[in-house]
Amino acid sequence: MKNLVLSAALTCAALVQALNAAPYQSGLSDLKIADAGAERPLEGFVWYPTQEVEGQEEQHSSIVWEGNMAIPDATPAEGDLPLLVLSHGMYGNAMNQGWLAAALSRQGYVVATINHPGTSTWLRDAEQSRMLWERPRDISRVIDHFLAPSAEALRIDPDRIYMAGHSLGGFTAIALAGGRYDAAHSATFCAAHSSDLACGVFERWEIAKTAQDQRAMEADLTDPRIQGFAVFDLGGTQSFAPASLGLIEKPLLVYGAPRAAAGLNLETEARALAAMAPNVTYREPSELAHFDFLGVCKPGAEEILAEENPGDEVVCYEGGDMRRSEQKKIAAEVLTFFESLR
């Protein structure tokens, strides 16, 4: 593992201060990408920099989640802009990493967030979750969309395209970076680790259970247009061929979350990835929890979730001020990482 220092000259506090000195405001528009086959249309949001200052509104707030400030359908900033595409975790959604999208759009990034059909909050479907190879393809389709001549009145710099993913979105990121699913290796690992969270999920979803599905899962899903990846407490590391992880050329910023680990074993997940991939910046803040990559929870959110869906309250455990503080640091580190790749 290459454990790189993000910036020897800047303390974490200075990074956050630099992030707060935003040159833009956030614009926000709906994102819709049609599927020619009408089987997998994509929907989500695009956050982008704008020089407008009037009309800011809190976006995507609820009785549980704090929102983020943006100007609906604002005029985008001019010039060629970097693109970041986000991938949510299992049964997450396009709003989960709005905190990161808002922070980076204020720094000049276009940030696209989507709902992955089959594995998102409101699009749970056994048939589509089985086709897990479609998740990386979703991200590639988003990139295609933004590089098309008519895309969103936004000009994207094709040399500054990045991707970030949380949990199952981290699995998606590694597939796009060059990790190759290996059914035999996955089966061997899961036979020896029957309680592994990712093994259980992949078994329930019947991943690679037919010869056709196995071929699709083991195909090369790399997207060479993506120049760097941020991987947030991923699951499914052991489903990849170790040799393929060792051949990943693009830089990775990998986070492991040691607190309230949500069933993920860091030794076989984030730490294992950091040990096998050759170009990794690894971060493991002692206070970081798996669900700290979701939004900030409002006071009383745990009680609301416990009443509505017992067990779901775990996503808001210490999810207020502590989470907000962690997210400011992470956003600053992610920005510094991507900027270092220019």
Provide a short characterization of the protein structure:
The protein is an alpha/beta fold and 342 residues long. The protein is 32% helix and 19% strand.
What are the key terms here?
342 residues, alpha/beta, two-stranded antiparallel sheet, 12 helices, 19% strand, globular, disordered N terminus
Mean pLDDT: 93
Global morphology: globular
CATH architecture classification name: 3-Layer(aba) Sandwich
Write down the CATH topology: Rossmann fold
Q: CATH superfamily assignment?
A: Alpha/Beta hydrolase fold, catalytic domain
Structural class: alpha/beta
Taking Cα atoms only, what radius of gyration do you get, to the nearest Å?
Answer: 19 Å
Distance between the termini: 22 Å
Provide the spatial order of strands within the biggest beta sheet. 3-4-1-2-6-5-9-10-11-12
Give a topology summary.
Blueprint lengths: L11 H9 L4 E9 L8 E9 L6 E3 L8 E5 L8 E7 L10 H8 L4 E5 L4 E2 L2 E2 L1 H5 L3 H14 L8 E11 L1 H10 L5 H10 L4 H8 L6 H8 L9 E5 L9 H4 L6 E4 L14 H7 L3 E4 L17 H8 L12 H19 L3
Parallel strand pairs: 1-4, 5-6, 5-9, 9-10, 10-11, 11-12
Antiparallel strand pairs: 1-2, 2-6, 3-4, 7-8
Characterise this structure:
The protein has 342 residues and is of the alpha/beta class. It has one domain: Rossmann fold, CATH 3.40.50.1820. The chain has helices at 12-20, 98-105, 126-130, 134-147, 168-177, 183-192, 197-204, 211-218, 242-245, 270-276, 301-308, 321-339; strands at residues 25-33, 42-50, 57-59, 68-72, 81-87, 110-114, 119-120, 123-124, 156-166, 228-232, 252-255, 280-283. The strands form two sheets. It has a ten-stranded mixed beta sheet, sandwiched between helices. It has a two-stranded antiparallel ribbon with strand order 7-8. Helix 2 (98-105) links the parallel strand 5 (81-87) and strand 6 (110-114). Helix 2 packs across helix 12 (321-339). The model is unreliable at 1-10 (pLDDT under 50).
